[in-house]
Design brief:
The chain has one domain: Jelly Rolls (Sandwich), CATH 2.60.120.680. Helix content is about 0%, strand content about 50%. It has no helices and nine strands. The protein has a five-stranded mixed β-sheet with strand order 5-2-8-4-6, with no helix packed on it.
């Protein structure tokens, strides 16, 4: 039986631009908790989405927390709404957003070489309001997908 996957990562992004953060995750599962916390910079709010495909994540800057990042060439930007795992979230003038008790199913849909295993990541698109660089922490829990 597969175990519940829990992870926490820190990253730095630039305000007023689309940033795509690569997060380690199982190739498929159900997100049951997703928490983002701003840890530095003025708390002016931010908007974020979570995607199941790299080229759906709008990005002027790409931030990798994944050790496997870089084995897929970027493709043209896809319709991001088709690859959103959860609805867009807007956080205004607070440092913390917590999504507890949620159930968002996903499967990674990156184009890949069929000889390789499925990619183990999801993508956080985040655009903080204000100016300058800001540090964030993200914590998330993913339940294994049912076996088919």
């Amino acid at each position: 039986m597969a175990q519940i996957y829990e992870n926490g990562e820190e990253f730095n992004v630039v305000s007023n631009q689309d940033n795509c953060v690569v997060l380690n995750a199982p190739p498929r599962g159900t997100i049951t908790k997703f928490v983002i916390k701003q840890v530095t910079g003025a708390e002016e709010g931010y908007v974020f989405n979570v995607y199941n495909r790299k080229d759906a994540c709008p990005s002027e800057a790409e931030i990798s927390t994944s050790t496997e990042f870089g084995d897929q060439a970027p493709g043209p930007l896809l319709d991001s709404e088709l690859h959103q795992i959860m609805p867009e979230v807007t956080v205004s003038t607070v440092a913390l957003d917590e999504q507890h008790g949620v159930r968002f199913d996903y499967a990674n849909e990156d184009a890949q070489d069929v000889r390789k295993r499925r990619n183990s990541r999801i993508y956080l698109g985040i655009n903080p309001v204000g100016t300058g660089a800001k540090d964030f922490q993200v914590m998330y829990t993913i339940e294994p997908a049912p076996q088919i």
